[in-house]
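Minimal example, chain plus phenylalanine.
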Amino acid sequence: MNKTTQSVSSLLLAAAILISFPSCTKKDGASNATSTGAATAADEIVIGEVGSLTGSEATFGTSTRDGIDLAIKQINAAGGIKGKKVRVLILDDQSKAEEAATAATKLITQDKVVALLGEVASTRSLAMAPIAQSHQVPMITPSSTNPEVTAKGNYVFRVCFIDPFQGMVMAKFAANTLHAKRAAILRDVKSDYSVGLSNFFTENFKKLGGEIVIDTSYSGGDADFKSQLTSIKTKNPDVIYVPGYYTEVGLIARQTKELGIKAPLLGGDGWDSEKLTEIGGQALDGSFFSNHYTPDDKSPVVQRFITEYKTQFNIVPDGLAAMGYDAMIVLADAMKRAKSFGGDDLRQAISETKDFQAVTGRITIDKNRDASKSAVVIEVKGGKFQYKETINPS
Ligand code: PHE
């Protein structure tokens, strides 16, 4: 057994111990997270988390929080890090970029956190990153995929793949698996994520011989997409690429069907929420999106994570929960290796993460502070997410 496998096993062992002492397990993921900076005890490490616990992407924040919470419980049950217990302070940014920036500043300057976890949405991570960088506090985003996020500086990391890859994954799927030749785009101009992914899809789809027959847009928060969809309908595309977040995508799916459009919708990880099909219902059947993780993965690491998460939260973890968990175990691993918890030592240790076995794959932080990992394509079928195929980075 190598070192990285061992680190996961010790976490899993800790989980087993936790499960056997039910008084230690809490059903409410938020209960150990407060937003006020209680005095830091000498025997604890305080980290900050910024997430959308409310607002249009609330499930991103709550799932990520729960994944992080599970990891921390396991880490602490196994004795903590260098004899210290880990505590997380969570601030809700209400799904707003300005709030994410304010929260990051508060956690760093008032609560003196040693590291930051968050955000999920790229636009909000882009608002936080310059703050982490200027204060020299390492930040790990679990799941922001826009390439610009980690380009903000050498204190900013991610444990997920990036959108040039994710855009290529869906372009390949459209061209090679669905044999699509003509694609329409419907992008959210307010989201760096959606704009970037639309561009990367376009670039790759064209390289594969496809044509973009129309490129349309909306603004996050919109609820009526009929005029864009009517224009799309006149072009009769084979597929419609909609790399937005679940609230708008659910509504777009419904309106697509109301207009009698048959072409399947394709999207990215921003679709990953149980709310997607709650909002979109049957209209989403036959749609596909790329993602970081699938609970259908039978590997022991994934299945043990699912069991532990279900024990604590009574639901199957989504991709956000898995990414939150992974961000926390990568940070913990770096903390164990770091010379000190000071910003520069911690940054150095995170950057040296190599072949670390996490739930969403093996994580090596590359020179751009990104992780190169495979993606899965998920099909929406009968209101459920079904694993379709895995696409590896070349
Ligand atoms: N990748 C998205 C972004 O950068 C966020 C996201 C990740 C959403 C994973 C859902 C699942 O904005």
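The longest strand covers residues 44-51. The first helix runs from residue 3 to 20.
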